[in-house]
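Chapter review: from sequence to fold.
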Amino acid sequence: MEQRKAAERAAAEEEERRAIIERRKAAARAAAEEEERRTANERRKAAERAAAAEEEKRAAIERHAREQEALKAAAEHAEQERREAALREREEEEMKRFEERRRLQQKRLEEQARRAVEERKQAQLRQQQQEEELRRVRQRQEREEEERRAQEARIREQNDRMTEMFQARERNTQTSSNMPKRVADAWESYEERWRQLALHASSGGMPLTFATIPWPTLAPPSGPEGITRNSVSSFLLSQWAPTQKSKRDRLRDALRKWHPDQFESRYLLWVPEGEERDYVKVGVGNVARSLNELWAAENSNGTL
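The token string follows.
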């Protein structure tokens, strides 16, 4: 009996302990649920505060943006007004400059018109002076041409007389038995020296002086003044010349050899510059002039 009662008490105590445990668990769950509700409430309030803060921040940003837009619009308006004012100022300044340029241009046109009138007067005067000067020049040229023709006629006449005298003297001297050999030797030397000159010309040139040039004269001239129409004629057209060519052919060959442009382009560069080259140029000119005179005499008279 006692054991059963003890068991019942133990069961009752166990039931009480379990009830206490259940109550504690229920209280703990209620506390946890309350804590969870409180925490959730605090989180909700924090979220609401954060949302409110974010909204306030966004509103502040929008206000700042509107203020910036307003400031920008005001600045743009001020800049636009400044630009318009500057444009009006430039337009006014440009108008002033345009008026000044127009005034200066009008003044220049008037000055140009005045100068044009003056220049026309001066041009007419210069034209009159030029026509007068041209008339005087023509008169002077006509006088000079008449004097030149007269002088040429005198020179031709003098050359003809000298040629006749020289030919007469040559006929007298050529009766000597030594003259044919002298002419033949001179021709042989002349042609050999020309062959050497042509040979050296084809191989690069050679030093030349007045004395080494094969002049068409019986005796080597001491200077350009020794080369005359008569000295060239007595050598080139001598009746004892050892050649079968006619006098006309001899003249034609010599004209080709002694043409100043051809001679200077082929041989003059070999002559030392300075007085020596000047002597050679004068000598070549004397030869060419003598040959032209002899050729002209041949064409006009038919004889030399």
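Two observations follow directly from the output. The chain is about 85% helix and 0% strand. The helical segments are 2-173, 178-203, 229-236, 247-257, 260-267, 275-301.
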